[in-house]
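ugh ok fine here u go
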Amino acid sequence: MLANLKQMAELVDIFARLGVKKAYKKGDFIIHPGKQPPGVFYISQGMVKAYDVTKYGEENLLIIRKQDEIFPLIWALTGQERHISYQALAETVVMEITRQQFEEHIIQHPGALAPLLDMTIEMYRLHSERILNLEYRTVKERLVSFLITTSTRFGTRTDQGLLIEAPLRHQDIASSINATRETTSRELSALEKKGLLEKNNSLYIIKDVSGLRDLLS
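structure:
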């Protein structure tokens, strides 16, 4: 990470001073499909899913934004937007400022660029790993790679195993690994039967990380 605590505090300061606090329930849209972003958002609590819709009408998961992150990041920095939808994945609280306020703050506080660069690098890493993931020939291998990658971002060690603290629908996973929902569901069930994976409500627990990695060998 390039940013230190002081630089992160500088970035959060503009949202704390001028931001409008907004709360969303799970499933609420923060940026509606096809709409121009109303502002720049800082997540103080919760998670937000970014996705687009394919020409076949299917959702394509792009990234899950978590606490202490900003979205829509590309639009905030460049003004360019691809009409991405942003939807709360859990009870979520955000602080919203205008893009003009965001730009002015960055100009006046260049140290705030460091955490933004960290977020941009993380986004690039995730998209790069997704592309590399598609090189695996089988759906099982792509699924396993997706679970391992997601656990590095949202994983928490528990007595039961490595808990992925991000609610994932079968369709979200399927779109990320270029597979059908039915095939993805079948492969998830196979991993559960092998004792490598467990589902607890909408969250997955990796029971055996080493065993899961062995499937990629």
